[in-house]
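Lecture 7 notes: from sequence to structure.
We start with the chain below.
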Amino acid sequence: MTEIAIIGGGPRGLWAAEELITLARERGTHVHIDVYNDGEPGAVGAYEIDQPDEWLINVRSSAIRTHLGSFDDWRDRHDDPFPPRRLVGEFLAESWTHLGEHLPAGTTLTHHPRRITELTPDGDRWRIGDATYDEVLLATGHAVDFPASLRHTDLPVPVLTPYPATNLAAITDRDRVLVRGAALTFIDVTRACPAAVFLPVTRTGRFMEVKPVNVGIDWADIIAAGQARVRDVADLPGLVDVLADVAAALLARADGVGGEHEIRAVLDGTDGSGDPVADLRASYEVATGVRPASAAWAVGLAWLELYPAIVERASYAGRDTLDGFGDLCRRLERVGFGPPPESAAGLLELIDAGRIDTAVLSRGAEPLAELVAETGATVVVDAVIAPPGVVPGTLEAWLVVQGHARIRPGTRGLDVDPDGRVTGQEHLSAVGRMTEDVVLGNDTLSRTLHDVIPRWASRVIGGPGQVHGIPPLTARTEEWADKLLADTTETRRLVAEFGSPVNVLNASPMLDNITELVDAGAAHGVDVHVFFARKANKGLVFVDTVRDAGHGVDVASERELRQVLGRGVAGERIILSAAIKPDALLEHAVANGVTISADGRAELDRIAAIARRLGTTAHVAPRLAPDPEMLPPTRFGERSAQWAQHLARPVEGVEIVGLHVHLHGYAAGDRQTALRECLTLVDTLVAAGHRPRFIDLGGGIPMSYLDDAQQWEDYRSLRQAMIDGHTRPFTWKSDPLDTTYPYHQSPTRGAWLEQVLSDGVAEGLTSRGLRLHLEPGRSVLDGCGLILAEVAFVKERSDGLPLVGLAMNRTQCRTTSDDYLVDPILVTDRTRGEDVEAFLVGAYCIEDELILRRRIRFPRGVEPGEVIGIPNTAGYFMHILESASHQIPLARNVVWPPGTLDDIDRG
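Predicted structure tokens for the same chain:
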């Protein structure tokens, strides 16, 4: 189990925990996560649930998502884009709770309400107190304190900080409140206090512009072209030129007011009128449609819309070639990331009411003590929050001092790699505000600007090194298949010579599987005869194998019967179990001494008539439909009482040689129930003068495609979590895969048959001198075949979903169940490539043409021309539903070794 510590329980810590737990589910890994946080996770800091409703978020609510879903759906409201931060805190807290309540088996999540101040390296691990961790992630968010905070100054009046909101409770309607800062935190202060007057003071002497909004005009083309240019800019002047051009295009399309001079002034920070209140009012009127769009609006919108490309260009090493970029960010933060219109309206109301006095707004460089005296302030509120980057007094600053981390030269941020790793460390990572300047745009609520956390989680969880489905379901494979799949030359030769896909057949495991059943019967004194169910695979190599070993074949059509007889299988070693039996089929079976499973009384009468006409005797095993009060109803056979009445005396032309039963499922107990009913009917038939010599239990003998029972349980758990909405979908279009084979079972084959024969069943057979006949298909073909298919293309769906196209169609690996739940195997010589998760799609011109419906992970990528092996598919998956639609030829079947066509394809 991987031990992981996340330091910080805010939005990014939550995202990190979600990614870890999701990947642990999907990759079959177990993790233990300890989350360290000041207080309860989620509703902390900016998202405390006891803060005023007037404190609003500054990012659109539609951008907020967790594993719980979207914030807007959670609150059942979509018409309020800037809701209270308190409500977001409730959503985050509930997301943490929900995550902890729906953990996959083997994964744990523990919260520790502790502030961490030190980390100690311990070999390849890190120590926090007495606990050691394989991985530690720093996600601490905004620093609580910083050296320039006014709490460290000596002023003649009380100094308060605005967070938590209870800090401001002492302010009354008689106080004159001097506030350092006039940005978003200042707005919070004005909306939480009943002060007589607020006196903001800043170095710039300006308020923020109202956050620019789309005025209903389509400008996707402008933004797309601008983003492409941003990614290619060589330096800061080039970036400024792009911003100016995009702003001009936006302004023109919005029929705004202003030209290049006004736009450049905004970019330079020289656009103010000198009247900060007039500028704020103008910005608000632009945002609310009272005034036409302005240069400040256009530049702010250009900055916002181009921001994803700017983040890409200016993060990590990209920042090194943008000298002066930090100053540009600080200037454009004012026009791009300002308050929503509602908050700006509140400011203007307070200004108009005289409760905000801007007399000292521009005097932020002067000593605060003098301003307190001059203004008569009774309280000072520090509305300047800790700066981004590494702040003295924080855990990350301690790590820098200790030499475990560094600040990237030319920035304020902790130096990290794109997957979050702290430079110089393998198992210590950091995300968020402490990395600002190195990573641009660490918005706490956005999960779209950066993929640092998913990349970090993918590195930490890792997963199997081989290709695997989500979650891993590793195939049981035989030695012959392992050798072939390891030989890229031979697999490509087979595909080149015989086409894609090619079915590779090897009958060597078949005899061991049959012997296992025979030996299990012998252990209980029961003579077991095995009749290979031909419908499970049309390859004639399997017919030849059972023929040479003295076993039999179950056939389900006239063509199957003729082929089997043509391979030299004697009629007494064939049973005909077809659901529909035309006269021509029955005549051929009767004439060749084949045992016929009579599905009903009318069919038995037809057989008798044919036998009399041919002047011979038909060998018949009536098919019993077990009591539906005891077993599920079935379409096959007739009830015991009906057979007893119909066979109350011998039937001319018919010899009743045994009884036949066809059951659904694999339960040993159901077989015992059916056998006991058969034994009772045998006694009735014997009393009526018949001499049945066997009971044929049909097929349904279980096998396991997987060795690892835990993998199967992990799959079932993940599937249920997907259905319940507790994890992201891992199947095509969230297909619930309701009907699939139980890919891991226990017991199987021989051990299962011993269970069937227990509790007196074996004695019931032997005491009556009865053999037990079995008609296995899948279970005797276990390990006898695989499909090889060529990778035709690697591409993306129109929405970016990765697809890997195989030169085959979906019917060539399909039964009546929803999917084949065994991991494919990539045959390749490559040792390196980019990790990708994709769906395998096929050749039919259908949107849902899926070969496998689970997402498949290729840890080292996949390329056209490579070969994918789908293992252990001989039983039903190759042929039961295969189709030649689009006039695409059916797959050819090759016997391995020597690698030559099976006779089924030579006709």
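Points to note: Residues 2-144+390-461 form a domain with the FAD/NAD(P)-binding domain fold (CATH 3.50.50.60). The first helix runs from residue 11 to 27.
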